[in-house]
Write a structure and sequence with these properties.
The chain is mainly α. It contains eight helices and no strands. The protein is globular.
């Protein structure tokens, strides 16, 4: 709670966040914009990319039910952004952070710490999470991996197979997000961007 309050104080002190916020659109304006976007492929690409990634993730989970591959769907939902990037920075940082987090969690597996140290570790990781999320997404991802694994383990001994599944699921999800971005980008290039509104004719002055 103390670190969360400290993170909020840092955000309030950030001069970049002190500027005047642009006026928010009304619900009617948002609905009209969304309705117009459905007439073009660009209005559907986020839904198609997310649906494609989640569909493949569910197929992989059904194919190997004994593994913890439901993490693929969770990671795809977290990493799929509305704006298309060929290699999203957030996706790359998430994959690298998960790898570092698996290495850190592996120390718990090798050491087999007592319960009180696990509770202390969960509290420490949860405390620094809001600070890292606002400052460094790579470090945030590295912290979240052992935190989620420790919470889901419920005090039971950690298994190396869970860590390997977590790493594989994150890497597979990153590949799915990047592949969906590339497919949607190529499809959008073939379909073309929505036609622009015709410009108003310019009036030419008569020469005297």
């Amino acid at each position: 709670m103390f670190l969360g309050a400290f993170a909020r104080a840092l955000r309030r002190a950030d001069p970049r966040a002190s500027g005047a916020a642009p006026p928010a659109a009304t619900a009617a304006q948002k609905y009209a914009r969304w309705k117009r976007s459905l007439a073009h492929f660009s209005g559907w690409r986020y839904t198609l990319r997310l649906g494609l990634g989640l569909g493949v993730a569910e197929a992989l989970r059904q194919r190997w039910p004994s593994h913890h591959l439901y993490w693929i769907a969770l990671t795809v939902a977290l990493l799929t952004q509305r704006q298309i990037e060929a290699i999203p920075v957030k996706t790359t940082q998430r994959a690298l952070g998960a790898a570092l987090g698996v290495i850190a969690a592996s120390l718990f597996v090798a050491y087999s710490p007592p319960t009180w140290s696990l509770v202390l570790g969960v509290g420490l990781l949860a405390g620094v999470r809001p600070l890292l999320r606002a400052r460094n997404y790579l470090a945030y991802s590295a912290v979240m991996t052992p935190l989620i694994i420790l919470i889901l383990s419920g005090g039971r001994p950690l298994e190396s197979g869970v860590l390997v599944d977590r790493l594989i699921a994150t890497l597979v999800a990153a590949v799915l997000v990047i592949s969906a971005n590339l497919i949607a980008d190529k499809a959008l290039a073939k379909v073309g961007s929505p036609p622009a509104a015709p410009a108003a004719p310019h009036k030419t002055a008569r020469r005297s």
